[in-house]
Design brief:
This protein has 339 residues and is mainly β. It has helices at 273-276, 316-325, 331-334, and strands at residues 28-29, 44-55, 58-67, 72-79, 86-87, 94-95, 107-115, 118-126, 130-137, 143-146, 154-159, 168-174, 185-190, 197-203, 214-217, 222-224, 227-238, 241-251, 259-262, 284-291, 297-304, 308-315. The protein starts with 27 loop residues before the first strand and ends in a 5-residue tail after the last helix. The structure holds beta-D-mannopyranose.
């Protein structure tokens, strides 16, 4: 197996636990999971499917908070150690380009990505059906929404952390208005973050049983010496409903619509009580990763059973070796995705 290195900043203060001796999987859970429990705020019953980033001396995050009226919105949180979080009690106050209040009707599954000096939040919002919302901030005090960048129906948008060939690049998953029984990951480009095009197919659901219904991008792709490491979710339908597991793939560095490697095994599937039991059972839904260039360590943040937030650890070498060991590329993965 070849050596692989992370291409990112050092992050010596990121959460970390060594792999337990008893663990045979390529990824292992934080021993104190879940890190966010139920009823974290007076009007929020559950926080899950949330994204974090390094910021200042510690970490910042955007959190899917399910209000007591059942409607999801995005809340800001701060942490010194990436594990214990303080949340703002009110939803993030989005404005339009003129600075006027411009709140989405609902907002869920946020991702948070920095490109150059700007932080972007992307999420699923209502635009006459589920669609992608994007907002930018430089100070986490003002949050300016970019008006309806994508058509409905679409979910699971996540930006790459740098421009590629001069363009912003976004992964997303076109879907339907309901619980979508299909879905592949597509890629789109934009010169200005406002108008998106050059939509290409990246990868589809596969014959692997754990991801044979639909897939969707999870954490922002992580740059490595061997390409972009993408953690994503894969879904199988069962007689008792959908089961969400976490998978991984490597995308081409300059043409990320091409998949270089794809793992036939999931990395992590629901098996702990907080993943199997909750508002929606059997869901592991990755939305963010922290990574340290010096050690190759990765901490993956994932929603658990639409009720909690969990953390799992791996290293870039360990996950890469595992992907290569169980590589299952298809012709449709390796195509540039243009027809
Ligand atoms: C998906 C999204 C996720 C959720 C999952 C399981 O369609 O809505 O937010 O975690 O279903 O309920």
């Amino acid at each position: 197996m070849s050596d692989i290195k992370l291409i990112c900043e050092p992050l010596p203060n990121m959460p970390w636990q060594d792999k337990p001796e008893s663990c045979s999987a390529p990824i292992w859970r934080h021993s104190e999971n879940p890190i966010i429990n139920r009823n974290p705020l007076p009007n929020v019953a559950r926080i899950f499917n949330s994204a974090v980033m390094p910021y200042g001396e510690g970490f910042i995050g955007v959190f899917r908070g399910e209000q007591r009226n059942g409607v999801p919105h995005i809340y800001l949180g701060r942490s010194r150690d990436g594990l214990r979080w303080d949340f703002d009690p009110e939803k993030i106050p989005f404005t339009d380009e003129k600075g006027e209040p411009f709140m989405p009707i609902y907002a869920y599954d946020p991702r948070l990505v920095r490109v150059d000096d700007t932080y972007y939040i992307m999420w699923c919002q209502d635009c006459y059906g589920p669609s992608i919302g994007i907002a930018r901030t430089t100070d986490f005090r003002t949050f300016t929404r970019i008006e309806n960048p994508f058509l409905p129906y679409n979910r699971n948008a996540v930006l790459f952390p740098r421009k590629i060939n001069g363009s912003y690049v976004m992964l997303s998953r076109p879907c339907d208005n309901g619980h979508t029984a299909f879905g592949d990951i597509f890629i789109s480009e934009s010169r200005d973050m406002e108008f998106w095009g050059r939509h290409r197919h990246v990868m589809g659901r596969s014959e692997n049983w754990w991801e044979n219904l639909k897939i969707g991008a999870g954490a922002a792709p992580i740059e490595t010496t061997e390409g972009w490491l993408l953690f994503y979710h894969g879904v199988v339908n069962t007689c008792n409903g959908y089961v969400y597991s976490i998978g991984a793939a490597i995308l081409d560095k300059d043409e990320p619509s091409k998949v270089l490697h794809r793992c036939s095994n999931y990395l992590l599937a629901p098996e702990e009580w907080y993943e199997e039991r909750g508002f929606v059972p059997n869901v592991c839904f990755p939305c963010a990763a922290l990574a340290d260039s010096e050690t190759g360590r990765i901490a993956l943040y994932y929603g658990c059973a639409d009720s909690y937030v969990g953390v799992a650890y791996t290293t870039v070498q360990e996950v890469y070796d595992y992907i290569l060991k169980y590589d299952c590329l298809t012709v449709s993965d390796t195509e540039e995705g243009r027809r």
